[in-house]
Design a protein that fits this description.
Layout: E1 63-66, H1 70-81, E2 90-93, E3 106-108, E4 112-114, H2 126-132, H3 146-156, E5 165-167, E6 171-172, H4 182-193, H5 204-207, H6 216-225, H7 233-242, H8 263-278, E7 281-283, E8 286-296, E9 299-313, E10 316-325, E11 331-335, E12 344-347, H9 368-376, H10 384-387, H11 390-393, E13 395-402, H12 406-414, E14 430-432, E15 439-442, E16 457-463, H13 482-493, H14 499-504, E17 506-513, E18 539-542, H15 556-570, H16 587-597, H17 606-613, H18 629-644, H19 650-665
Parallel strand pairs: 1-2, 1-11, 2-7, 5-14, 11-18
Antiparallel strand pairs: 3-4, 5-6, 8-9, 9-10, 12-17, 13-16, 13-17, 14-15, 15-16
Length: 671
């Protein structure tokens, strides 16, 4: 491509010095100024989705991607789309014998299906949708994308729940009543207002009051995102900002969108097919445990990759050492840590047995590479902060493959649509607030797997707390067989008397995951490495244990974001990865969030805002008041008394002034 065909002035294919590939919207005040050609830091629009020129010399460079999960696959995608690297130059090295990492989905109706975890998504995961708008659809014809398919499903089948919280063996709670007192609301507001730098190594339970941790709001929040009270307060704050626009949808999960099928068939399979068709090379059963790095002052250059390849030969596996030489111009993009490493499996009659130490994952695990990198330089962080206490990061999930039974009959009564209709079923998890395990159950759109029989449903259950005996079964969840977990589930659903009929028509597969929320462990600045650690010229890090500016973790969005940042920075592509969607700065979301936190009732000062704005252009930003027109004046005066104090003579004067001001907005003669 000739630059002269575009312009008479110089245009380069790489970014200028000082270009910020990962802008931070919280860093400073953004404004237009001379020579500023870039949009705001968190600008999400077609202008931020431009196509770049090929990176100079890219056709001669190679890329080695360590980890075949969503982060590694995303790295390959952005190398192809935005760097224009030939796909055949990209090799993905994966420890397992299948791509997908933690985003799995497997099994069959005879043995039972299994999914270790699910993914909740909303519409402002902009990096996720940026990628999948370019990946061909699974079932729609050529020309359609995964994003198109996703939108068609969700636009025509809204997601919501009518049974989000339950207690007392089947009794529903009003999940839209967050149960927050004024002081507990203020605890949340204070946390939102705090600067991130002040929250290093502080846990949730160290900050919030004991009463707050028993509210409906906290049951909704922690079960939705899998927070334990010992986890990071900083991460809680980041989640509050990320989902500020969704707070008023927490009670019925209407803020979320879900795929038609499981996460593997919806996302991993079409993305992998796209990469394979382009020519990307996949090498499975390949565990990478170390990198040779040449240090020259602050400069760090990967020169070799070390690992072990498992060769399947009959009943016994053989292992061969692997060494890959890396040129200075080549790239290495590596996964740090693993949420699902050392997963222990069980079934109807078998208890999962952990094979790892509670304080160290051992050698040749999915953590080994990060551990070895951290020994080379502090820029690679402190992995022991995350893997070092399994009791705080562990929980268990169970996948149920169900024929018709009393369990399915009960699920039907809690669902928004018939489970066999293909539409939204429970609309997300149903959480039992009085469960000692903090157990939740969900039934997503069915079939959940493309080959699933018509008379079969797949349910997913998880328990967040592993240190307490069940309410029905006097064991911890991790000590239970599948049958015992079914007994506990049936107890909380109020169908214990029909347990045998449920067991007879259910297959269950268990997954006990020691590091599944390791990314939520309390942390401080420097504990997680950046996508391109300081001084690294050809090494990028990806996944859930990598530091980004403002985004959260435990999401597809986080893994994809780290991969995209790494590709852009290492190749100096003149393109930015926008900061998280700016909904947290939108006054509309702040106002409706405040209303939701006040248990659906107008917050102090809200009626004053209505009096000021309800006849102006900006009236629509305010949540509608719950009272009739006749009572609005009375309630307004009551609020003014509460704000200014009873008997204050200024109330009448202020009220009169606001009335005159409102009338002026609607007076056509007032110019």
């Amino acid at each position: 491509m000739s630059i002269e065909d575009i312009s008479k002035f110089p245009i380069t294919a790489t970014a200028p010095e000082g270009f910020e590939h990962e802008p931070d919207a919280t860093r400073d005040y953004w404004h237009h100024q001379p020579l500023n050609t870039l949009p705001p830091y968190d600008y999400i629009a077609p202008y931020a989705r431009h196509k770049t020129l090929p990176t100079p010399g890219i056709e001669k460079r190679k890329a080695w991607i360590i980890g075949g999960g969503i982060g590694g696959l995303a790295a390959a995608f952005y190398l192809i789309r935005d760097a224009h690297m030939p796909a055949a130059n990209i090799t993905i090295l994966e420890e397992m014998d299948i791509e997908g990492g933690s985003m799995d989905g497997a099994g069959n109706p005879e043995d039972g299906y299994i999914i270790r975890g699910g993914r909740e998504m909303n519409w402002n995961y902009d990096t996720l949708w940026d990628l999948f708008q370019d990946i061909p659809a699974v079932e729609l014809p050529d020309g359609y994308s995964v994003l198109d398919e996703y939108r068609l499903i969700n636009d025509n089948d809204p997601n919501y729940s009518k049974a989000r919280l339950m207690h007392k063996c089947g009794e529903l709670l009003d999940a839209n009543d967050f149960g927050l007192s004024k002081s507990q609301q203020w605890e949340l507001i204070r946390l939102i207002l705090k600067r991130k730098e002040t929250l290093d190594d502080i846990s949730i339970e160290e900050y919030f009051s004991a009463g707050f941790l028993q509210t409906n709001f906290w049951f909704l929040f922690r079960s939705m995102f899998a927070f334990k009270n010992c986890h990071s307060l900083l991460e809680t704050k980041l989640y509050l900002h990320r989902f500020l626009d969704a707070i008023d949808g927490f009670g019925d999960m209407s803020a979320l969108v879900f795929p038609k099928y499981n996460q593997y068939d919806t996302f991993i399979k079409p993305l992998t097919n796209f990469l394979r068709e382009k020519g990307v090379v996949f090498k499975f059963n390949t565990c990478i445990h170390d990198l040779d790095i040449k240090f020259s002052g602050e400069k760090k250059v990967v020169t070799a990759i070390h690992g072990v390849v498992t060769i399947k030969k009959g009943k016994e596996d053989e292992k061969e050492d692997l060494r890959i030489d890396v040129e200075a111009e080549d790239l290495v993009l590596a996964l740090t840590g693993s949420m699902t490493e050392h997963t222990a499996y069980g079934d109807m009659d078998t208890i999962p047995k952990l094979a790892c130490d509670k304080h160290d994952p051992g050698e040749n695990s999915g953590w080994s590479l990060w551990k070895n990198l951290a020994q080379k330089s502090p820029v690679f962080g402190k992995p022991e902060k995350f893997y070092g206490d399994v009791d705080k990061s562990i929980w268990e999930s169970a996948t149920l493959t169900c024929k018709p039974s009393p369990l399915i009959d009960k699920i039907k009564t809690l669902s928004v649509n018939d489970p066999y209709s293909g539409r939204t079923v429970t609309g997300g998890i149903i959480t039992f607030t009085d469960s000692n395990w903090l157990m939740s159950v969900t039934c997503n759109r069915q079939p959940h797997f493309p080959d699933q029989p018509d008379d079969t449903l797949v349910l997913w259950v998880y328990g967040l707390l592993m240190d307490k005996q069940g309410n029905c079964v006097q064991k911890t969840m991790s000590q239970c067989t599948g049958k015992e977990i079914l007994a506990e589930l049936c107890y909380h659903l109020g169908i214990s008397d029909q347990l045998e009929a449920v067991i007879a028509n259910t297959k269950i597969r268990l997954a006990l995951m020691p590091y599944i929320t390791a990314q939520f462990m309390t942390r401080a600045v420097g504990d997680r490495p950046h996508p391109v650690p300081e001084g690294c010229t050809n090494l990028g890090l990806i996944g859930q244990f990598v530091e980004t500016r403002n985004d959260i973790i435990f999401t597809m969005e986080a893994s994809i974001r780290t991969a995209r940042i790494g590709v852009y920075k290492l190749l100096n592509i003149p393109k930015q990865v926008p900061d998280i969607n700016p909904t947290q700065y939108d006054i509309r979301h702040m106002l409706k969030g405040a209303r939701a936190l006040n248990n659906g009732k107008p917050f102090i000062g809200e009626r004053l805002l209505h009096r000021l704005l309800d006849k102006t252009y900006f009236a629509h930003v305010l949540p509608p008041l719950p009272e009739t027109e006749d009572s609005k004046q009375t309630r307004f005066e009551e609020e003014m008394h509460e704000l200014l104090g009873k008997g204050n003579a200024a109330i009448q004067t202020l009220g009169d002034w606001i009335t005159r001001l409102r009338e002026s907005f609607s007076n056509r003669d007032d110019r």
